[in-house]
Write a structure and sequence with these properties.
The chain is an alpha/beta fold. The protein has two domains: 173 residues, Rossmann fold; 213 residues, Rossmann fold. 31% of the residues lie in helices and 24% in strands. It is elongated, with a radius of gyration of 25 Å.
């Protein structure tokens, strides 16, 4: 999946040690299908050479506003008009100050002033430079002018200090740019998502769980963030990182058992959309042992099961949420070993929800690929096999139309 296919990106590089990361960023942008045109300041060339960037992008690198290779000798106009976005990484404190004040004394700053496309900056500087009131004023002016700031992050810096000001990693910046281009069809909406497995304790070291990786639920969380939603992700035990986007707003609650997930969900149903993606255990152990159960020859321990609460059913039955708004639009998920359409639709009707999504991939659990079967009151439709993030974006589009 190339999320930036046919996008024309001007990659600006200003002076700073983080410029070495720009080479990897250019490569990642191109892997996502983008056409990358690099523009470098004089200071940037002290850290990485134009030859390097030209070799990676296959395009001549522009460094001077007096470049005569442009027929009309107006590189600042020609480059900005052809671009879908200008991304500057790293963006130094000096560059941020100039752009925020409308100063233009080289090609990159002139390009930003003459642009006819979105501008995104990835700040990179020493922690004291970032914290300085002048830099913070620059950041606020840029934000008020509609410029997007990607980062910075906190971490170990080239100067040997640790703190805020470190440039985001190339993969993070690439993700942020991909998200920027997604339509904000859920702007202002609140989305609640359960993801991953649950773990039902037998004793302090053993338990019953399932093969769910949480990848589909986390993909939906990211797609909802990209669409502008405020997201609450309730995650069972899994090793996935929380999706984080520059303009996103996400809360993550980690739980272990089905009952913990039920409690967290019922405390958070003041939302517009609920995606019940988690593979929740239908049964738990009635009386988990307080100490590890010792093996006694060939005799197996007797386990007494008790039904866990039905999260999706309880959310669907809650006529009103805490602020007296209508119940959320509920989207359930179903994983069946046989007769997926029949069993999934029966589940949808039984729980009284408008939509259910069936997993029909050959090896859904743990895979990065999946196929979906969407079932609602109008019938069913398949979404062909694709990466889970791509499927999540398509699902978000369908639900957005419904609400």
């Amino acid at each position: 999946m190339q999320s930036l296919l046919n996008k024309k990106i001007v990659l600006g590089i200003s002076g700073g040690i983080a410029a070495y990361k720009s080479a990897e960023l250019a490569r990642l942008l191109m892997q996502e299908g983008a056409s990358v045109q690099v523009v470098m300041t004089e200071a940037a060339q002290q850290f990485v050479t134009p030859v390097t960037m030209q070799a990676l992008t296959g395009k001549p690198v522009f460094t001077s506003q007096w470049d005569s290779s442009i027929p009309n000798n107006m590189a600042h106009i020609e480059l900005s008009r052809a671009a879908d976005a200008i991304l500057i990484a790293p963006a130094s404190a000096d560059l941020m100050a100039k752009i925020s004040l409308g100063l233009a004394d080289d090609l990159l700053t002139t390009l930003c002033l003459a642009r006819d496309c979105p501008l995104l900056l990835a700040p990179a500087m020493n922690r004291q430079m970032w914290d300085h009131p002048a830099t913070q004023r620059s950041a606020q002016r840029l934000l008020s002018d509609g410029v997007s700031l990607l980062g910075p992050a906190s971490g170990f810096q080239a100067c040997g200090e640790t703190g805020m000001g470190r440039m985001l990693e190339p993969a993070e910046i690439c993700e942020q740019l991909v998200a920027f281009f997604q339509k904000k069809i859920l702007l202002g909406k609140r989305v609640l998502i359960t993801a991953g497995p649950t773990f039902e304790a037998i004793d302090p070291v053993r338990g019953i769980t399932n093969r769910s990786s949480g990848k589909m639920g986390f993909a939906i969380a990211r797609a909802a963030l990209e669409a502008g939603a405020q997201v609450h992700l309730i995650a069972g035990p899994c090793e996935l990182e929380t999706p984080l986007l520059a303009a996103g707003n996400i809360t993550r609650t980690n739980v272990v058992s089905a009952r913990e997930m039920h409690a967290a969900t019922m405390n958070s149903i003041d939302c517009d959309i609920f995606f019940a993606v988690a593979a929740v255990a239908d049964w738990g152990i009635a009386k988990p042992a307080k100490e590890k159960i010792k093996r006694q020859g060939k005799q197996a321990p007797h386990l007494e099961f008790v039904a866990n609460p039905d999260i999706l059913l309880d959310v669907a039955k809650s006529v009103k949420s805490k602020n007296s708004k209508p119940r959320p639009y509920c989207v359930g998920f179903a994983a069946e070993s046989t007769d997926l359409t029949k069993h999934a639709d029966e589940k949808r009707r039984r729980k009284g929800i408008p939509m259910i999504v069936g997993n029909i991939g050959p090896d859904t659990f743990g895979s990065d690929l999946n196929q979906l079967l969407i079932i609602d009151e109008s019938g069913s439709k398949k979404i062909a096999q694709a990466e889970k993030l791509e499927l999540a974006r398509k699902l978000i589009q369908l639900v957005a139309k419904k609400i």
